[in-house]
Specification:
two-stranded antiparallel ribbon, two-stranded antiparallel sheet, Mxa_paralog_2268, mainly beta
């Protein structure tokens, strides 16, 4: 569980990973919809200790967490041919 002492205080956990972010709009107002795309290289799912899951967290402008998405490292495993 994630808890924050203050909306101004950043939350940092784990290793930083490189990624690309694209949105359909700068802001998504209450009641509106939009798209968010995140692209990460396969190497983002590895660390010095082996395969890792990634967590994508989305926060509102006031610092409250809006959504959490777990990206399982198995989505990038190479599949053998049959």
């Amino acid at each position: 569980m994630l808890s924050r002492q203050s909306a101004e205080e950043p939350v940092r956990t784990g290793e930083k990973k490189e990624f690309a972010l694209r949105t359909s709009r700068d802001e998504i107002q209450p009641g509106e919809s939009g798209y968010i795309a995140v692209v990460a290289d396969k190497s983002a799912f590895t660390s010095k200790d082996g395969p890792v899951h990634l967590v994508l967290e989305l926060f509102r402008h006031d610092g409250l967490q809006q959504a959490v998405v777990l990206l399982d490292h198995r989505i990038v495993e190479e599949k053998g041919t049959h």
